[in-house]
Every structure is written in C-alpha cells, then in structure tokens.
Amino acid sequence: MSQVASLLIALPLISAFFVPVLKQIRKSLIFPYLVIITLIQTGIAGWVFYEVYTTGKPILIYAGGWKPPVGINLYIGHFAALFALVIAIVSFLTALFSFKAINVEPVDKYAMLFLLLMLGATGMIATGDIFNLFVFMEITAITAYALTAYNKTGEAAEASMKYIVLGGIGSSFFLVGVALLYGATGTLNMAQLAEFASEGNIAPVVAQVGLALVIFGLAVEAELFPLNAWAPDAYQAAPHPITAMFSAFVVKAGLYAMARILYLLQDAQGWSSVLKLLLIMATLTVIFAELSALRQKDVKRMIAYSSIGQIGLIALAFSLGTEAGVSAGVFHMLNHAIVKALMFLAIGYVGVTLGGTRLENFEGLGKKMPLTAFALSVGAVSTVGVPLFNVFWSKFRIIVATLQAGHVWPAALVLFASVVEAVYYFRLLHLIWFSGEGERVRESWFVVFLIILALLIIAIGVYPTPAWEIAKRAGSDIFAVANYIKNVPLIRLG
Amino acid sequence: MISAYYFGAISLILIGLYAVLVKKNILKILIGLSIMETGVNLLLISIGYVSGRSAPILSEGIGPLQAVDPIPQALVLTAIVIGVATTAMALSVAIILYEKYGTLNIEEIRRLRG
C-alpha cells in the first residue's frame, strides 16, 4: 500500500508525456489538465503526509524491488512528506495562476516543463541516493533553465544564459564531489554513507573536500552568496508563475539536499570546518541580498533579493550543527514557502493586470485592487518578522539557536539585515496604501487563493505550535542520522 | 605518484573552468563547460578502473572478478546525456541571444541591471 507514494514521482512524469498528445486534440485542454494533475498530486501528497505523520514511520520505496544499497531507494520521511505536500500545493496554485499569466506560445511546452520541474523538486527531497539526487537536481535545473527563457525576450535569454553557465559549473562540482565520496567509500546510498562516516571509515580529507564540493555545487541551486548572481535576473525575467515555484520550492529542494548530505557525514572528522564555510556563506548571503534589495526599482527583483536573504537565513540555521538550529531552519523553510508563494503570486497578478512590476505600478494599489493589496501587505509584514505573523516565530527561533550555538556576530549581522529588510518593505507598503490615486480594478476569482494564503500566514502566526511541532519532527528527520540509518534496512554483502 | 588518469581528468576540469571564467564569447564559454563535463566524466570512469581488468560484460572467461567496477560507467552514461541536454539548451539560448542583441560578447549583453 505504501508503494502508492511512488506516484509522487511517477504521476508528473507520465502526465508530462501526455501533454503533446493532448495538444493534438485541443490546445485549450492543456491548462485544465495541468490543474487536474496538480490537484491529484496534492491529494497523493496529502495522503502520504497523513500516513507518515500518523504512523511516525517513513515510507520506503525500493526501485525494482532491489533493497538498498544495491538498488535506489526513496526515503519519504517526515521532511519529504511535508515538502512533497508544499510542492504539490504551490504547484496547484501556480497552475491556476497560469491560466491568466501565460499567454506566450507554446503552452504545451510550458505545461511539460512545469510538470517536470515539480517532478524534479519532489524527487530531490524524496531520494535516498546521492547520484539519484544529482539526476533529479539536473531535471530541476534544465527545466528551470528552459522556463527562465520561456518569455523569449532578450532579457529572459540573458538571465537563462547566466543560470545555465553557473548551473553547469555547479553540477560539475557536485559530480566531482560525488565521485570523491564514491571513490573513498564505494557506495552511493545515503544511509550506507552515513554508516561509514559514523564508524569513522571516511578519511577526513575526503569528507572535507567532498562535502565542500557538494555544497558548492548545490549552492547554485540554493542561491548562496558567491553563486547566486543568476537568481535576481532569473526571477525578474521568468514568467510570473514560475517565479513563485522557484522561490517556494526549487530553492528549498537545493537547500534540503545540502543539509541532508551535510548532516549525513556529521561524524566524519573535519566536519566542523565545513560548517564554518557554510556559516560564512550564509551570513554573507543575508547581508548582500538585503542591501541589494534596498536600491531596486522593480518590485519583482526586490522581492527576489529578499527571497535570497531569507534563504541565507535558512542556510545559517542549517550551518549551526545543532538540533534546535535544524528544526528552526525547517520551520523557516515552511513559513518562507507560504509567504513567498503568496508574494510572487500577488506581484505576478498585479504585473499581469496592470502591465508591469515597476514600483510605479504599485502606487495606489490599495485603492485599485484592495484585496490583492491586502494579501501583499500581509506577506510583506510577515517577511519583516513582525509578531503575530508566521515568519516572526521562525526568525526568532533561528536567532536564538544561533546565539545558543555561540555565534554572536552572525546573529547580530542577520538582525541588522532584518532592519534593512524592514526599510524597503515599509517603503513598498507606503507606496501601496498612502500614495497615488486610482480607479477600482475588478479582481478575478484568483484573489480568493491569495486571501487564503494570507489567512494561513496569520493563522500560523497566532497559533504557531502545531506548525512548529510538524517542523520539529521534520527537522529531526534531517538531524538524527542514527535514526535514518536504522530506518533504511541495508542488505549486507559478503 | 598520482595516476595519469586523475591528473588528466582534473586538468581538463581546470581548463574548462578557466575558459568559462576568462573568455568573453558565449560560444567559447559553452565549449569550456563541455570540456569541464568531459573532465568530470573521465574522473568518474578512472575511479572505477582496476588495473589489468576488462570491460564489465560478463561472458565466457570474464567473471565478476575479472571486470572493472561497472557502477561509474552507469553514472557516466547518465552524466553524458545530462551534459548533452544542458549544452543543447544553452546553444538554443545562445541563438536567441544573438537574435535579440546582435552579439555574443558577454560584456555587451547587459540589459538586466539591479
């Protein structure tokens, strides 16, 4: 019965291949088809989430019935179950939004790439094998390159080219890291790799260099500081729905993969120096992103920088090496996924309706589109970290965990960056509510979903405990590696 | 003494990286990326090589103990395909860039600024 969970991977793959068939029948069927598939995916992910959280046991899927470490296994633990659900819900919302926002031909290719992007991200968080992780990462990356260039303007091609070159370098580094780890241990299975590390069978140099290469490779997908130059351009030039997907889960999948591989090797010698590398990268990411966001004229680009800053915060939480930090990081991932999905959908909606996402377009938005403006404001206030909104709790926990781990400077710098963040968000809010005149523009049914997301933000902000409990269980899924090894039954070969 | 395979593979990666970092023409950058991918594939293959053994195709006279490690070969097969897909994607983007900007020099392709 639990093998049904493999549909999380299989369904988007199969349905992506049916899109060209559907196009031959009728073009107008493609977007309803996309909505139905993402809805089914949400249903399956919801069932998997319920199953994993009620039984407390991860769902293991063996490809072809070969037990690990011989075959590839999917490990849908607490974390993967939670984020498969987040991915499915965000995909469903973006599929609905695509009706309005995508009017560039060819829509069939858009639908295929959309489904493959969802597939790649789900696979990245579900897999239990590092080479399989690489393959899913490349599926995600190549579809992301193509979707960035989808608008066929010069800017879109430019952004996509930057992304391709950086992503190519990153994936090469990642593969070299995998080759090193394989050469030293002779296994690609994550559980067995962790077992080797906990028995002290990995040479410290290999663990350090391999991990550093893997982190550098994944940092491109995860938008960490030296390798994130592609991100603001790609966010600005990509179609609006795709931006929401990038920020809500593509980045998260990269971050998760980074944290997973990092914590698998936590018993290897020299691990703490890799943590320091990540700590520095994460702090720099937060500072540079927030300072760059301050001087943006395009709102989408501004929110893109803000998104990078929040990602840096999550990476900071993962680089602490404590359980509190990892749980806080996962909590922030969840909150940030909700908030940024809302922000990018709302901004995209404004961009589609009023023709552009420059700051001028947002002047007097409170009078023109009050409901959208309300949702956008909730998202903005939440991102800054005002109490009674969800991001406050996770930011607070990250700062506390950072201080507990003894890193005063990173905590201070991150707090400073939050102040900077408040400046540009409140400037935006002022522009929306207190300046400009405008006629009322009719808002369509899509606004309902924005309002639901906004209410969800407030609900988690007022009652953080249930969400925090979920995040804590998902966090211990990453942190407690001994448990992870125990959950994956490895067959012993002579 | 470091093996010639490792040395050659890592040199290829570094040559590719050098081309990506230094060259101004997009096509040369993409050639650099391809060289880098080739280097990585070569590194993967040479990790699985066991001196004196033959290809891992089990037939008469060649058992599992006379063959080299088959896993890196499966990995490389996948990695080659991924590399080709990335290159094809990048080349099509390069075509669009040339149509829209009339140049392939990365210093002149700068419309997106923050």
Summarize the entry for a quick read.
Chain A contains 20 helices and two strands. With 494 residues, chain A is mainly alpha-helical. The radius of gyration of chain A is 21 Å and the shape is globular.
Q: Give the oligomeric state of the chains in this entry, treating copies of one chain as homo and distinct chains as hetero.
A: heterodimer
| Structural class computed from helices and strand pairing of chain A | mainly alpha
> Can you tell me the residue ranges of chain A where pLDDT is under 50 for at least 5 consecutive residues?
none
Q: Assign the structural class of chain B, choosing from mainly alpha, mainly beta, alpha/beta, alpha+beta, or little secondary structure.
A: mainly alpha
- Through-space gap between termini of chain B: 49 Å
What is the element string of chain B, with H for helices and E for strands? Answer: HHH
Mean pLDDT of chain A: 88
Listing every helix as H and every strand as E from the N terminus to the C terminus, the arrangement of chain A reads: HHEEHHHHHHHHHHHHHHHHHH
Radius of gyration of chain B: 19 Å
Helix count of chain A?
20
Q: Overall mean pLDDT score of chain B?
A: 89
- What is the percent of helical residues of chain B? 55-70%
* Strands of chain B, count: 0
Q: How are the strands of the biggest sheet of chain A laid out side by side?
A: 1-2
Tell me the radius of gyration of chain A: 21 Å
| Low-confidence runs of chain B | none
- Name the beta content range of chain A: under 5%
**Largest sheet geometry of chain A:** 2 strands, antiparallel
